[in-house]
Amino acid sequence: MAATTDHNLKRTATAGFLAWLVPGAGHYYLGERHRAAVFFFVIGATFWGGVAMGSVSRTIDAQHRKAWLVAQIGSGVHALTVLGWQRVQSATTSEYCYQADEVAVVYSGVAGLLNLLVIFDALARGEKPVPVGGSNAPFRARRGET
Predict the structure, then answer these.
(1) Labelling 21: which of 15, 84, 92, 117 has CA 20 to 30 A away?
(2) What is the extent of the structural domain holding 48?
(3) HEC profile for 40-57?
(4) How far apart are the first and last CA of the chain?
(5) If DSSP codes are grouped into helix, strand and coil, which group holds residue 146?
(6) Are 67 and 20 in contact (CB under 8 A)?
(7) How many helices (H) and strands (E) does the chain have?
C-alpha cells in the first residue's frame, strides 16, 4: 500500500510542477490530452495577448508591480520567457503613460491566476488512482470501444 501512495504522491507532484511550468502539461502527463490542449492555448493566448497590447519591456515589471509579478509568474514558462527576453534586451521600464500597458499587465496576470486554477485541477486529478486499462479507459468505454 505504501508503494501505491508513494507513486500517487510522485504522480501528483509531477503533474502539479508540469502544470505550472507549461500550462496544460500536467494534464497531458495525466493522459488528458484534449483538456491539456485547451489549457495551453487559452492561457498562452491570454498571456501573449497581454504582451502584444503592452510590450515585452513593460508588461512584467518586477520593480514597480510586485503583486502583479506574483500573478504573472503563475503562467510559468510564458512569464519566464518574457523575463529572459527583458534581460537579453537589457530593457528598462519606462513611465507608464498608456492605458494599454495597464490592460497588458492585467491580461498577463489573469493568465497566471487562471493557470493557478489549472494547477489545482491537475493536483486533484493526480491524486485519483489510474483506472485499469489506462487513463482513457472510461472515455473509451463511453464511446463503445474496448
Answers:
(1) 92
(2) 2-142
(3) HHHHHHHHHHHHHHCCHH
(4) 29
(5) coil
(6) no
(7) 8, 0
Contacting residues for 26 by C-beta, under 8 A, at least 6 apart: 14, 15, 16, 17, 18, 19, 20, 36, 118, 119, 122, 123, 126
pTM of the full structure: 0.79
Looking from the CA of 35 toward its CB, the CA atoms found within 13 Å total 17
Please, what's the b/e burial string for 13-49 (b: 16 or more CB within 10 A of its CB; e: otherwise)? ebbbbbbbebbbbbbbbbbbeebbeebbebbbebbbe
What is the distance between the alpha carbons of residues 42 and 54, in angstroms, rounded to a whole number?
19
Summarised one tens digit per residue, pLDDT across range 63-106 is 888 999 999 999 999 999 999 998 888 755 555 556 778 889 99
pLDDT in tens, 118-131: 999 999 999 887 66
Please give the tally of structural domains in the chain.
1
